[in-house]
C-alpha cells in the first residue's frame, strides 16, 4: 500500500486562505463578524481534513481475462476486494489508471471475510502496452475541498498486438520453393553433386571416386554444390521520415507481424529485425508467435534509425545466410534507396520490398535485384505474396 499526498482543490485553497485572511483582518480591525467568518472557514477546512484520515482495510487485486489482445478489441479488467478483517468495509470510490486514462470504480461494501469485484471494459484502439493500475482508493470530503488517494494493488501490463492477416496460403510459395535448391557455392559434402577434382591433403577419403581414380591414375574426389537452406529475414524500418503518418507506420508493423507470425508457425528459420537509434538494429524474439507480437507491440518510430539501405547492409555484414529478405517500409522511401538496399545483399538472395501505402492500389513492380510490392490494405499482402511466388 502506498499513500499519495493530499490534493487540495481550488475551492479548498480558497476556504483555507480566505479563512486565515478574514480572521487576521477581523482581529486587526476588531470586527467580530469577520472573526466569526474566519473561524468558520478554518473549522470547515479542519473538519474536511479529518474526514480524509483513516484507511480502507482489505486487499485489492487486478486480474485481466486476456493480457494479450489485438488492436481494436477490448479487454475485461476485474478489480477484486477481499476483507480479512472482522469489520464490514463500507462502499468507496476507486480509480484504475489505464495507460494515460483514468477509469472510475464504485466498490460496494464488503462483509467480514467476504470478497467483491468490479469490472471495467478497456478499449484498445491502438497497438502498444497499457499499464493497468495500481488501483487507487479515493477519499473525499463532502464539500470537495480536498481528496486523498491510497494505492492498494500492484500494476499489470496489457499487450495490444498489431493486427495481422493469415498467410497460410502465401507461406507455401517463396520459402518452400527455395528450400533444397542448389546454390552456386561449392562444398566438400552435401547432396547436390557438381564435379570431380583431384584429391588434396585433408579431403575426406569417403568422397574419393574410385572409378575415376582408376581411369586417371590419381585420386579424384567428388565436389558438391551447397544446398540452399531457407532463412527468411523480415526487416522493418522505423525511420520516421520513411512514413507519411501514423496509419502508414501501423500498416507496416502489421505487414511485418503477419509474415513473421506465419514463418514462426511454419517452423521456418526466420529473423525479424527493427531498426533502432544510432544506426543499430534490434532483433525481435521469434521463439513463439506471442513473443514476436509482444515485441512488435512496443515498436515505434525512432529518430536517427537506419532506413532500408542501411538495414540491408547490416544484414549482409552479419553473415546470417539469408535466402529471402523482406524490407518493410513506408511510401516516403524512394525507389533508388530500395534498389541500393538490394545491391548491398549477395546476388543469390531474393530481395522483396513491401511498401505500406494506405488505401493505395496494390501493385508489384520488378527492378534490378528487387521486386517492390505496394500494399494499400493488409489483405493485399496475401495476394501480393501469392503473385510473387507464382512468378
TrEMBL record:
It comes from the Bacteria. Residues 196-278 form the DUF58 domain. Signal peptide: none annotated. Keywords: Membrane, Transmembrane, Transmembrane helix. Coiled coil: none annotated. The chain crosses the membrane at residues 7-28, 34-53. InterPro entries: DUF58. This is DUF58 domain-containing protein. It comes from Cnuibacter physcomitrellae.
